[in-house]
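QA checklist item 7 of 12: single-chain prediction sanity check.
[x] sequence parsed
[x] length recorded as 315
[x] structure emitted
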Amino acid sequence: MKTKAKESYRIRNWNAYDAALKQRGSITFWVDEAVIQQWHNEQKTGRRGASNHYSEVAIATMGTIQSLFHLAGRQTEGFLESLFTLMGIDLAVPDHSTLSRRLRKLAVELPVVPKTKAVHVVVDSTGVKVYGEGEWKVRQHGVSKRRTWRKLHLGVDEATGEILAATVSSNNVADGEVLPQLLDNIVEEIAQVSADGAYDTADCYDAIDQREATAAIPPRRNARIWQHGNSKQKPHPRDENLRRIRSSGRKRWKRNSGYHRRSLAETTMFRLKTIFGGKLRRRTFDNQAVELFLQCAALNRMIQHGKPDSHKVEI
């Protein structure tokens, strides 16, 4: 039996990509001159009591350093203190309790390069561990009641790999419930939304239709037509997808609709977990959400600084 040869790719910009990979580990890449200048909070709240001494930039930087280098709270504090000493900078560092207290109210804005045309958004979610026993104990004794996780929902630009929107939920929230909120957080014009069968719901199609975008969502295997041909209403996009699948096959529909590009969302999840470990340090939901948003923002900065430009090699 003849097997299909595995496709091979080669990177065109290896020198630039290699330099970008090394730059990710540089402290000066994360603590630059702009961060130092904005370290202290210069704005007063106008309310009774003392205003925050450290700016949101300082809290975000400290939280990013902690996630990136997998440090505990006090270790992060000592790490930045020693770094400022070596740099000859006379700046105080927030203590770990200040970081934990301020983190839950931190507003994280994902850095995204402005787009000149409508984007193709690929959507997916992944589970992130919070606490619980190790994998060995789970295999031996089963899952305990304390074991839980959070779900990170991402909307990714298919062309650049940037995270356009992120939402965090508990593990009992279905993927389709989050899609409308995810699309609301994307300011760019959307041309197409590609997602797996978990998003095959009326609410998801309505949210995509409101953005005047094309929906590339495979209907379930036992799917039925929602609006039949004798209906006076406009044909539903989901029914149109189902009819194309019945006429040409699911495999060809996925190829023609560009659905296979949805796998890039899974690539983004893999990058995120590989770099940051796939585990959360925080114990409250709000802090856990901000921790994940900071990771998403850091990943966008890495992608913007340099990503591989690969092309298929003919065998």
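[x] summary fact logged: The domain at 119-283 is CATH 3.30.420 (Nucleotidyltransferase; domain 5).
[ ] second reviewer sign-off
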